[in-house]
Amino acid sequence: VMIRAKITGSIYKDFCKEARKLSNICDSFGCPLCSSIAIALTRTTGQPVIIEKAELSADGKTIETCYRIIEE
Length: 72
Description:
By secondary structure, the chain is α+β, with helices and mostly antiparallel strands. It has helices spanning 13-20, 23-29, 32-45, and strands at 2-8, 49-56, 62-69. The protein has a 3-stranded antiparallel β-sheet with strand order 1-3-2. The chain is globular. It starts with a strand and ends with a strand.
């Protein structure tokens, strides 16, 4: 199952932009906002969740993240 979250106008957009500079962290765990959504999905579904893709728009105003729920 895939879930897509699109966040516009977040107060964390600058933090996300800075986290992207640390590619080893952002690619593995996502920024704090994206990883928090993943945790919420995991707790809600009771299934493991993987962040498939996280993108920040060119203007830095929109964060779009795709999550995959691993059904056991």
